[in-house]
Amino acid sequence: MAGKFELYTDKAGEFRFRLKAGNGEIILASEGYKQRASAENGIASVKKNAPEDARYERKETKAGKHMFNLKATNGQVIGTSESYESTSGRDNGIESVKKNAPDADVKDLTA
Predict the structure, then answer these.
(1) For the CA atoms of the chain, what is the radius of gyration?
(2) Cys-Cys crosslink for 15: which of 11, 39, 44, 101, Cβ 3.0 to 4.6 Å?
(3) Per-residue pLDDT tens for 7-47?
């Protein structure tokens, strides 16, 4: 099963998106956007930047877990991962985004 983006509104009324892998697991989540068009541009940016390994910022949390940010060409964070127990888990998450994002459909949950 292919990955998909879900576009939704959060409790504060902001637009957000998340990328889910084929198994339904969330592998990337966005910040909140005031405008729907901005969230849609964020999805387009993820699709464009996901295949580029250099766009991934690999980090360690204060709690010692591992995570990553996907950045646009201008250095702005366009998506953030969950926390992983290991670097290999994080790296598998990155590979999943690379594989799923470019061709993922968008499911609109805002209606």
Answers:
(1) 13
(2) 39
(3) 999 999 999 999 999 999 999 999 999 999 999 999 999 99
